[in-house]
Write a structure and sequence with these properties.
Distance between the termini: 111 Å
Number of helices: 1
Order of helices and strands: HEEEE
Strand order of the largest sheet: 1-2-3-4
Number of strands: 4
Oligomer: single chain
Length: 132
C-alpha cells in the first residue's frame, strides 16, 4: 500500500511570484512618491517667484509719491533658494494715456527650470499704481 504524503508549505514558484508582485508594487509606489516630490519642488519654486514679483510690485507702490514714478523698463537678477540659475525680473512702468496719475506696472520673471527640461519659464503680474 502506498501512502500519500501531504505536502505543506510553499513552493519556490509561489515565493518567486510573491516577491515579483511585491517588487512591482514597490516600484509603482516609489515612482508615485518621486513624482509627488518633483511636483512639490516645482510648485515651491513658482511660489518663490510669485513672492518676488509681489515684492517688486509692492516696492513700486511704496515709491509712488507725487511725480516720482518714471516710465520705462528695469531688470534685476535675483538669486532665489531652490534655483540653480538666477531669476530675471523685468519691471515695466507706463503712464496710462487717459490719466496723469495712473500707471500700468507689470513685473515679468524669467528663469530656466531644470525639472521641465531646461525650457524657459515665465510669470507675469500686473497692477495699476496711482502716483499721488
Amino acid at each position: 500500500m502506498r501512502r500519500e504524503r501531504r505536502r505543506s508549505g510553499t513552493t519556490l514558484i509561489e515565493v518567486l511570484i510573491a516577491v515579483t508582485f511585491l517588487a512591482i508594487a514597490a516600484a509603482v509606489i516609489l515612482d508615485a512618491i518621486m513624482t509627488a516630490n518633483r511636483q512639490s519642488a516645482f510648485a515651491l519654486r513658482r511660489s518663490r517667484v510669485l513672492d518676488a514679483l509681489q515684492d517688486t510690485l509692492q516696492g513700486v507702490r511704496g515709491k509712488a509719491t507725487k511725480d516720482s514714478l518714471m516710465e520705462g523698463d528695469s531688470t534685476v537678477e535675483l538669486s532665489l533658494p531652490g534655483f540653480a540659475e538666477s531669476v530675471a525680473i523685468k519691471t515695466t512702468i507706463q503712464r496710462r494715456k487717459d490719466s496723469r496719475v495712473l500707471y500700468d506696472v507689470s513685473a515679468t520673471a524669467a528663469w530656466n527650470d531644470p525639472s521641465t527640461g531646461k525650457r524657459g519659464e515665465t510669470m507675469t503680474l500686473a497692477t495699476v499704481v496711482m502716483d499721488q
